[in-house]
UniProtKB/TrEMBL annotation:
A Pfam family reported for this protein in Swiss-Prot or TrEMBL: FA_hydroxylase
A GO biological process held by the record: membrane lipid metabolic process
Localization in the cell: Endomembrane system
Name of the featured protein: Sterol desaturase/sphingolipid hydroxylase, fatty acid hydroxylase superfamily
KW Nucleus (keyword) present: no
Domain Fatty acid hydroxylase stretches: 84-217
Transmembrane spans: 12-29, 41-61, 81-98, 139-164
UniProt keyword terms in alphabetical order: Lipid metabolism, Membrane, Oxidoreductase, Transmembrane, Transmembrane helix
Keyword presence, Membrane: yes
Topology with respect to the bilayer: Multi-pass membrane protein
First and last residue of the signal peptide: none
GO CC terms, sorted: endomembrane system; membrane
Length: 258
């Protein structure tokens, strides 16, 4: 029964996201924004499908690793609303540093490269995620589990963090006034995806922008971003996009930014 409920919720969320993608395509077409390109979008959808499959295959690894770490927790915090709120904020803090180091450490950039490889910014780009990234997640949140935050809440918070970021990958939403610099917004995330000199390695926050403000990586959108990595177009082949970062890493050729 629980699995059926989870599948129903997942199906409802997927339907909502699909409707938003369709609405964005209509918006782009009617306003001649050209934020979608057929081959790029098909690559995004193929990568999304592979990512969903990888989550299924790697779920056991993630669950086993996090539950094992929970045995060594310093505290045993019970699941309640306050602990969930703490978990959500703590996960966002950890995500900031994980995301920031993913742009600085070449091994982590090998995983993250695919997300920055598109020359476009639209909602389908949000799930341009590496199929092997689930291998890293338990270790990213390990400190929180070892402190005593329930690994179930940590996992849910991480998932919600990624879901929130879906809405950031769009040009259909302009600046959001006083929210800019407090929450991650489409404008702030367009900056993050820009390969403009002033935009590189900026705005790493998943939900909150306060971490970027605190640690000196916040950059407001001041000019139209040029998307993609600094060396330009890679490929529309999903396999090439997924594995290029690893190939370049082992060849010592990662002399580019995104």
């Amino acid at each position: 029964m629980e699995n059926e409920t989870r599948m129903e919720h997942g199906g409802a969320i997927f339907l909502i996201l699909l409707i938003l993608v369709i609405l964005e395509i209509i918006w782009s077409w009617k306003n001649d924004k050209k934020v979608y390109e057929t081959k790029d979008t098909l690559a995004n959808l193929a990568i999304f499908a592979g990512f969903q499959m990888s989550k299924v295959f790697l779920f056991g690894f993630q669950y086993a690793t996090m539950s094992y770490l929970a045995q060594f927790a310093l505290l045993q915090l019970k699941i309640n609303a306050w602990v969930f709120l703490i978990s959500f904020i703590a996960v966002d803090f950890m995500y900031y540093w994980y995301h920031r180091y993913s742009h600085k450490i070449k091994f982590l950039w090998a995983f993250h490269l695919v997300h920055h490889s598109s020359l476009f910014m639209n909602l389908t780009v949000s799930y341009r995620l590496n199929w092997l990234s689930a291998l890293l997640t338990p270790f990213v949140v390990a400190p929180l589990i070892l402190i005593g935050l329930p690994f179930e809440l940590v996992a849910v918070s991480f998932g919600l963090n990624l879901l929130y970021q879906f809405f950031l990958h769009t040009e259909a939403v302009g600046k959001l006034g006083f929210i800019e610099g407090i929450l991650a917004t489409p404008s702030a995330h367009r900056v993050h995806h820009g390969s403009n000199e002033d935009y590189i390695d900026k705005n790493f926050g998943g939900v909150l922008m306060i971490w970027d403000r605190m640690f000196g990586t916040y950059q407001p959108e001041t000019e139209k971003p040029t998307y993609g990595i600094t060396t330009g177009f890679i490929s529309n082949n999903p396999l090439v996009l997924i594995f290029k970062g690893f190939y370049d890493y082992f060849k010592g050729k990662m002399d580019y930014k995104g």
